[in-house]
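Quick question, first post here. What does this chain look like in 3D?
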Amino acid sequence: MSIGEWMQFVTHIGLIETHQLSPLQAKNVFMWSRVRSVPDLSDASEIRLRHMFFEDFLEALVRMSTLMAFPTDEELAEVGAADAGEFLLAMQVDAPNDYRAFLDTHRPKHKDPDGSDFEQHQLQPIWRCVAHLVTLLVRTVEFNTSALRNSDNADGAVQAYEARKFIRSRTQGGALHRQAGALKGTDFQIALDSAAVKVLTTTAAIKIQMSIRAKRARRKVQERRAAKFAREAGAAMCIQRLLRCRRARNQMAKRRWLKEQKDASIARFWQEAEESVEQLDLRLR
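> Answer (accepted):
Ran it through. C-alpha cells below.
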C-alpha cells in the first residue's frame, strides 16, 4: 500500500471528514508504520521502503487508534450502544454539536507525536481503542452497503462484496452515509455526564474499598508483628532463664568442687598431723 492508497483509504472511510484525523496525522501514521531499513538498494528494497505491507498496515491501525476519540465502555453502556461505531455514527447524525465537544474531551492527550507516552494520558487501554476503531470501520462500510436502508442488516462483519461495493461507491464520488439506527433521539450529553458521574462514583467506591483493605492489611501486619515480637520476647526470656540456670548450676558445681577440695585438704592435713604425731611418738620411745 502506497501513501496515496493509504490516504485514499483514510479519506474514503471518513476519518478526515469527521475530524478524527488530520491529513498530516494520517501521513505521519504511514511514515511511522512502514519499514525504516532495507538490506540493499535494489528496486524490490526501494518498493519495500516506500510501501506498507500487511504487518505495517496493522501497525498503522494501532497507531491511528491512539490519535482518535472513542467512547469508553461505561459510556457505551449508558447510551445502550452495541459498539463504538454505532455510538459515533449516531452522534454525528443526531448531535453534531455534542460530537464536536466529544472530540475535544475524548481525544488522547499525549504529547509525543508517535504516541510513545500514550499510556501516561490514556482514557482507556490501546487494545480497546483498536477494537473501537475496527467497529467504526465495519459500521461505516455496512451503513453504506448492506445496511444502507435498514440498519438491522448490519451483522458486524464486512463481506468481500460489501468492501467492493463500498470502494466502488466512494471511488466514483459517492457521499458517505451515516445512520443513527437504534440510538436515534438519544441525548448524548446527558448520557455522557451520567457515565462520568458513574465512573467517579465507581472510582470513589474502589478507592474506599482499597483504603479499607489497606487498613485491614496494616492491622494484620501490626498484629503479626506484635505476635512475632511476643514470640521473640518469650524466646529471649527462655534463653535468659536457661542462661541463669546454667550459671546457677556452674556456681553450684564450683562451690561443690571448692568444698570437696577444702575437705580433701583438711583430710590431708589431719592425716599428715597424725603421721607426724606417730613418728614423734616412735622417736620418744
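Residues 138 and 162 are 10 Å apart (CA to CA).
The chain has a mean pLDDT of 86.
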